[in-house]
């Protein structure tokens, strides 16, 4: 009886591991697709509007710098 429970627990653990691996792989592919899409978008924006992208980057950098540099 205890061996049956141990065997069933081992089967359930193996199934859970397999499902977790499948979920990880699916999430990994989705993240890679998202990063590729974002990269293409940013390259297109840089090519179409270089001044706007530069100004945005400088503005974000300034704000982050001010937030990190403020010491209260």
Description:
93% of the residues lie in helices and 0% in strands. The chain has one domain (2-69). α1 (2-48) crosses α2 (50-69). The chain has 72 residues and is mostly helical. The radius of gyration is 24 Å and the shape is elongated. It has helices at 2-48, 50-69. It is built from 2 helices and no strands.
What's this entry about, in short?
The chain has 72 residues and is mostly helical. Helices cover 93% and strands 0% of the residues.
Write the layout of secondary structure elements.
Blueprint: H1 2-48, H2 50-69
* Gyration radius, in Å: 24 Å
Structural class: mainly alpha
Shape: elongated
Number of domains: 1
First-last Cα distance: 66 Å
Mean pLDDT: 92
Spans where pLDDT lies below 50 across 5 or more residues: none
Note the run of SSEs as H and E: HH
Share of helix, binned: over 70%
State the total count of DSSP E strands: 0
- Major β-sheet, in short? none
Task: Please give a handful of descriptors for the protein shown.
93% helix; single chain; 72 residues
């Amino acid at each position: 009886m205890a061996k049956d429970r141990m065997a069933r627990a081992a089967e359930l653990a193996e199934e859970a591991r397999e499902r977790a691996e499948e979920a990880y792989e699916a999430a990994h592919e989705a993240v890679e697709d998202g990063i590729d899409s974002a990269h293409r978008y940013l390259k297109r924006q840089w090519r179409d509007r270089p001044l706007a992208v530069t100004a945005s980057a400088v503005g974000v950098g300034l704000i982050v710098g001010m937030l990190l540099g403020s010491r209260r």
